[in-house]
Amino acid sequence: MDTSFIKGIIPPIAIPLKEDESFDEQKLRRHVDFVIDGGCSAILAFGSNGEFYMQEEDEMKDILDVMIDQCAGRVPVFMGIGAIRTSKCVRLAKMGVEHGAKAVSILQPMFLKPSEDELYTHFRTIAESVPSVPVLMYNNPGRTGYGIPQTVVERLAHEVPNIVGMKDSSGDITQTEEYIRRNRDVDFKVMCGKDTLIYAGLCVGAVGAVCCMANFVPKMVCSIYDKYMAGDIKGALEAQYDLNPIRLQMDKSSFPVATKDYANLLGLELGAPYLPTKNSTPAQLEGLKDQLVKAGLL
Fold it and tell me: Could you read off the pLDDT of 206-254 as tens digits, one per residue?
């Protein structure tokens, strides 16, 4: 199974909305072009910053079709899945593959606290429903309330042929490193899920990162990866240092609205998030703007 395309910087595409909360097709197409032109290696549909938890299945189909059509084969499209019920995840995975997604990314179930056996069965069942494409696990304990245990990942990586990697958003570089170390014998590919740890992730063997900031400063984010891969280790670290203040300011906003706020400040017109979340307060918008000014982006 070809997994060579699982690498680089991948944005979880933010969805531009109209006032009635339907997605704006023309702005979405323009946004897909923007991140590809910015050097991104692939795009992730329905990641956390894509507000997947707000969308109905019919909306997902329409959004995915637009993304795949606009990409036109220039970069692969990953299908993100974050449903709780295993059978719904299977349905979404099949839909994504049928519509042209080249890989599937699965978040551990929210709200529940599954046992290791339950988690194993969940991921295995979904992966086996789409055996022709690579499947990544998505570890995000900050949003689900628990992490995917190393033992579960190790079993799945060694026992399910198309579970080939994961995105780790734990923010714990030891966890990231262990996901890599324990499974390096099967060429398990780990993507870093924290924008502030792209450089650190690459240093311990990650193959890239899924970065919300690539929605609005893709060239800046991609420069960390590109410099590192070119052997400019010091330059990659400095690029990471340049990025961090912009990313850290986002934590003062309600999740995940700062991605759209930054994009709007830069003229990308991604609009508002789905209610009940709202764009940042005027005071916080000034804080976001100040970081862009300091970075020479405004």
Answer: 999 999 999 999 999 999 999 999 999 999 999 999 999 999 999 999 9
From the list 167, 189, 227, 260, the catalytic residue is: 167
Residue 250 within any structural domain of the chain:
no
CA pair distance 30, 289, nearest whole angstrom: 23
Q: What is the dihedral of CA 11, 13, 14, 15, to 10 degrees?
A: 170
Is 167 among the residues known to form the active site?
Answer: yes
pTM over 0.90: yes
27 is catalytic: no
Provide the domain count of the chain.
Answer: 1
Q: Determine, yes or no, domain membership for 245.
A: no
Q: CB of 281 within 8 A of CB of 255?
A: no
Domain of residue 156, CATH code: 3.20.20.70
Could you tell me if residue 259 is inside a domain?
no
**Catalytic pick among 7, 102, 120, 138:** 138
Contact between 134 and 165 under an 8 Å Cβ cutoff? The reply is yes
Residue 97: other Cβ atoms inside 10 A = 18
Q: Specify whether the CB–CB gap between 171 and 197 falls below 8 A.
A: yes
